[in-house]
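hi support,

uploading two proteins for the ticket. first:
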Amino acid sequence: MQEFRIESSSYPAEYGTGTGGHVSVITKSGANDIRGSLFYYMRDDRFDAPNFFDKRQGLPKSPLALKQFGGSFGGPLARDRAFFFGSYEGYRLDAGLNIIEAAPSALAFQRAVPAVAPLFQAFRGAAGALVLPGASANPSSTSCSCAAR
């Protein structure tokens, strides 16, 4: 891509009367030289602060390993006539997962019909789920957190 332009309001009459925006892209012509580019981005839990919910629950820091990489390569097939271009992008993410969900509070279960009482623990989430005290302003619900590793 050589140039791009985004027109979002007050664009010239050459674009018509459509609403919204217009995106104009001008591509580069081929080159008689072989060219390419590479990129690499890494984010790791060694560089991150602990998650708010992990700290509050006394859990170890959530794991994170993010790698994004790739490159492009192009050049002539026939001088000044035909050109080739290719690109690749890789994305690898390995992260922990924190789930915060609303669950009925003990007050809500006290007011519920007796048939619902056996379901109280099922609403508390998976093993290892922790109740976050004071996380909900609604007296009929509370917040539970489950960290999946």
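and the second one:
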Amino acid sequence: MSQPVVLVTGANGQVGQELRVLASLYPTFDFVFTTRENMPIEDETAVQQFFAQHRPAWCINCAAYTAVDKAETEQEAAYNINAEATRILADACKTFNTRFIHISTDYVFNGQSPAPYKEQDAVEPVNVYGASKLKGEELCLQTNPDAIIIRTAWVYSSFGKNFVKTMIRLMQDRPSINVVNDQIGAPTYAADLAQCIMHIVAGSAADIASWHSGIYHYSNQGRISWYDFAVAIKELTGSSCTVSPIPSEQFPTPAKRPSFSLLDTTKIRTVFHCTIPSWKESLEKCLKLL
């Protein structure tokens, strides 16, 4: 009897690469990692053929168009990957009886909430990237109501491009940097998110009744600004760079950013018993790797 297949799309992204690291800890699964080169997810025929060949038991969609500022001018590309391709994957999962886990974003919200966002709170994206990801969520659940959607925020890792690596580079290159202090949220270490996802997959492999479809929120525990995050990176790396707080209007970007991105993670912790580390503990782990 062949082992159940776990298909991971967007394998070169931060969460995709962290899942590659974890794969060796799950020898009872056969992992298949794909990129746009070997399975273009926006090509319906290619996706259906790939599913017919590999018959995955689970599909974890880590593929996304994540260039938030570029999305303002590349709207078609953003919607193709974040919305249409999500529908294509959700449909293939339904056809082949594959459990679908799709990763979404805090950017589906407008950032005006007085309290951490719960899954059922009203959505209102403030930029094209957020709107394209929201459309992906809607198409996903319309096409395949049995799917799990995990919204996350401020993702970083030892892989890929991210805030942590940018800060380390800037702190080495410059005597001082300015970082916005009026955008509030909590970072997500991609390795922690990958672990939570595999916890859900392994749980449903052992007991199908442990699969609970719907939308969930995941980020590390705590509440900080980007400035606080930068200060912690400076302290943990022993940098002598001066980090100064500035308001968002002093750092204009093509795409508007939500000023409040804190996600309430109660549901994912309660339903799936995922343990979520504090943001600082996870930052320390990532910096050790870097």
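thanks. also noticed: The mean pLDDT is 97.
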